[in-house]
Amino acid sequence: MSIMLDEIREQPQVLRKTFIQGWRDVQPFRRFASRSDFRIILIVARGTSDNAAMFGRYLFEATTGIPVSLIAPSIHTLYKSSLRLSNALVIGISQSGEGTDVNLVLESCKAKGAFTVGITNEPDSKMARLVDEVFLVGAGKERSVAATKTYTGQLLLLYLVAWALGAALPADQTRRIPDLAETALDLEKNIAALVERYRFMNQCAVVARGLNYANAYELALKLMETSYVVAERFSSADFLHGPIAMVDRSFPLILFMPPGPTYKGLCEMLRTLQSLNADTLVISSVKVLRRSCRRLILVPGSIKELYTPIPYIIPGQLFAALLARAKGLNPDRPRALSKITRTV
Amino acid sequence: MSIMLDEIREQPQVLRKTFIQGWRDVQPFRRFASRSDFRIILIVARGTSDNAAMFGRYLFEATTGIPVSLIAPSIHTLYKSSLRLSNALVIGISQSGEGTDVNLVLESCKAKGAFTVGITNEPDSKMARLVDEVFLVGAGKERSVAATKTYTGQLLLLYLVAWALGAALPADQTRRIPDLAETALDLEKNIAALVERYRFMNQCAVVARGLNYANAYELALKLMETSYVVAERFSSADFLHGPIAMVDRSFPLILFMPPGPTYKGLCEMLRTLQSLNADTLVISSVKVLRRSCRRLILVPGSIKELYTPIPYIIPGQLFAALLARAKGLNPDRPRALSKITRTV
Description:
Structural class of chain A: alpha/beta
Strand order of the largest sheet of chain A: 2-1-3-4-5
Radius of gyration of chain A: 19 Å
Oligomer: homodimer
CATH topology of the largest domain in chain A: Rossmann fold
Number of strands of chain A: 10
Order of helices and strands of chain A: HHEHEHEHEHEHHHHEHEHEHEEH
Number of helices of chain A: 14
Helix content of chain A: 40-55%
Distance between the termini of chain A: 35 Å
CATH architecture of the largest domain in chain A: 3-Layer(aba) Sandwich
Largest sheet of chain A: 5 strands, parallel
Largest interface: A-B, 71 and 71 residues
Shape of chain A: globular
CATH superfamily of the largest domain in chain A: Glucose-6-phosphate isomerase like protein, domain 1
């Protein structure tokens, strides 16, 4: 099959390992954080890790009340601006720990007195050495160019970091996430059949909101990388401010629709899309949605919205990997890509 | 022709009017800001105004050193999170001043003690009434659904707000922007001929970095709204982390390439795109680029990078409006859109 698919399937065990080590490592950080007075969190990352950063943004703001800024690396690396970073926590996320710009930003913020945290899959990386505190994804070597197991591993560590910053995220809930991931993997056979319908799709938009907004970016990126589908990504609110004009019956939309705070707005959007005869694919654990979309990927179980991002991205990853195969492409060898991308 | 095109042409006079009133209004705010100790700037907006917000993000961080967070409205409106906003300046941007979520966020931040600023085209709007300080775009009524003159008006006011916050942006430089806009409008005839080449383009990506990154979003949005082109938008650095896999000879790219800090990285990207035989359209004032892309829109004059965003978006606006016409579409009546979009 493909390395990408193998790595998708490894996720429950990767998440278990990441939780065990992360839970131990986060204890001293929690004690330190409770004595600190972080007024702002800045997160720096690229590619898939930047999608994890976007999840972190929503998670931290929703659960800790600390404002978050997703760093624009060029401000530091090209414009050489000296940001005022008093009481700032700066978090870098990188699978390899070798992203040039991410590490430059971390170094520059550390030199200005910010406390730095790194989330990486590589304990011997430059990032792991330079930050004040490192949290490790326990994914082992990630061989597929399209990152999957490190993305969900990064998300899991962000739950633990949020907990350390005071979020009400009980350990027993976070510990259950690997089981949710395992259940979501049961969807593989259904999705293998489903992707045939999308064999000739060459463009689409992925839509979500709130905690799953990052998943819209991540699924779109997987579709671009592995299946060369021109995949837009939007929040449902932004979509109505212009991009909806693109929609016709030949422009498919994929929506993440967990029950919870974002559900109502997405239902309204789905009704608008129905009136435009759009082709819609919904990822949700709400069965009744079957009636209002063309295709539904039903994520099993009853999952609190706060814990949906990891089990919800797994069918998305499967969709991208299996669609690539259905299109006769090798998802492990995307055109023009290598595993470590060095940008400044 | 079209209302959109008329409004594009109005921009020099709108910018002059906006500067005169803005320059007067910003003086007391500058005195107030110099006594305040703003540690973070949060900006909230939707649609085109959100693209202006993204410009503001780069401008404020690059010229004032104050970290900026682009607000995720759902954190306030759906997750009802209580962000800690000590020493925060919160800026709302809305053409109509009636965006439901934008105003809800401003109200919520004001109630928590943040100082609020509104940038709007409508002096009698809800936003104008609720904020502590309002700056008005002098665009008159904007009748086209696709916003153009209010976008550049918002950008101009953001220069003035940055100046009030301590940025080294001399008034005589900002005052010259309407003249730069006027010169850029001379490109209309060339662009009217150029768009014929893109008559059958139905997807593309728009790429830029730094201060012009917002223009990539804005041009993509205009193309989506008025010409139904599925237009992706990327920073050149992000593009190399995955999306570049989509590129082949039938996937066109539009690049904003001002001389300055972002130029070198974009040149490297252009070389990569050449090696992939991609079809590239560059917007720049650097003549020599003609040799390394398929088509060049040469913005006249020698413009400092800091002041390129307004004159550089104008050929983009013209391109979108004239492409819609070449495609037989009416840019003033996008499918499924109305002028005021109310989302929560």
